[in-house]
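User: Hi! I have a protein structure encoded as tokens and I'd like to know what sequence might fold into it. I'm fairly new to this, so please keep things simple.
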């Protein structure tokens, strides 16, 4: 089940980041470009995530910690300029 949680959270981050990068015309393989493009969107990621089926399914459930761990990992990748 942990793997499923990780996949769902990663899918959200990938989709979210790619929408931002496409709109900003940034190559997802350009770490500096990814970091720069995502800077204006970091505060909007969590509110968007709370609307996902993954958040609704795992928040305050026995898989909550797995969700939080996956969220932190994916967020840290964005801080490094990498798309999950």
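Assistant: Happy to help. Inverse folding works backwards from shape to sequence: for each of the 84 positions I chose a residue that suits the local structure. Here it is:
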């Amino acid at each position: 089940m942990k793997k499923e949680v990780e996949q769902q959270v990663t899918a959200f981050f990938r989709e979210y980041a790619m929408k931002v990068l496409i709109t900003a015309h940034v190559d997802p393989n350009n770490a500096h470009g990814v970091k720069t493009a995502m800077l204006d969107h970091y505060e909007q990621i969590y509110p968007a995530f709370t609307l996902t089926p993954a958040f609704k399914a795992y928040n305050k459930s026995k898989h909550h910690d797995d969700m939080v761990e996956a969220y932190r990992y994916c967020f840290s990748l964005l801080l490094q300029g990498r798309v999950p």
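A useful reference point when you look it over: The mean pLDDT is 95. Feel free to ask if any position seems puzzling.
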